[in-house]
Amino acid sequence: MSTTPTPSQTLDAVLFRALLDKATDAIYFKDTEGRFLRVSNRMVGAFDRDHPSQVEGCTAAEFYSEDHIREIKAAEEKIMKSGIPMLDVEEAETWPDGSITWASTSKFPLYDADGTLIGTFGISRDITEHKIAEEELQEANKRLIEEGRKSAVAEFAGTVLANMGGSIVEIRQGLDRALADLQQARGNPEALAKATEEVKELRYVAQTLSDLMRIQSA
């Protein structure tokens, strides 16, 4: 039986090689043990290698952190067991040096011509810049909300203080009453209770004024 490839097979090989050489996404094929069978040049660069031969035959354990390796293994075992692909999942890729990159990943079960499961294959797109921009936007929104809240509170505090000119006088008058009541409270539980409540109310008013002045000056 001739082993010479047909024109169609030759074309398939050329197209497949062109895809792995030029694709801007990381493309990879693995056996059932997680060893890389074929990888795109993009993935070779992501692993800081110079040629696909330096990656093919290796497993993810030689490139990623232990935490990410466990995640990869669990996902691929689930795909091979269920036959259900994993589509457009955002993954945090953690590396041995502690750095983190982000990828949008799709993975599929890999079958041979007879329909026998022989591994998995996947496509990962680097979305690190997108995730960083997204996080920065979220932080900016939080800051805007917080600044808006502070501004509204400060405006309210200013309005309240502007209309509380008589409060200082009221506090002084209240203190005078409380002192007078305390002088009369000796041996009189009811008078003592009344004076105590007046002091509590004055303390509350004074604390409120202090808080409003602090907010306005912030």
From TrEMBL:
The EC number on file is: 2.7.13.3
What keyword terms does UniProt attach to this protein? Coiled coil, Transferase
Q: Which InterPro entries match?
A: PAS, PAS-assoc_C, PAS-like_dom_sf, PAS_4
Q: Which residues form the PAC domain?
A: 87-139
CDD domains named in the record? PAS
- One Pfam assignment: PAS_4
Keyword Thylakoid tagged: no
The residue stretches assigned to a coiled coil in this entry are 123-150
Any single GO molecular-function term of the entry would be: protein histidine kinase activity
Gene3D superfamilies in the cross-refs? PAS domain
User: What is the designated name of this protein?
Assistant: Aerobic respiration control sensor protein ArcB
What is the protein's species of origin? mine drainage metagenome
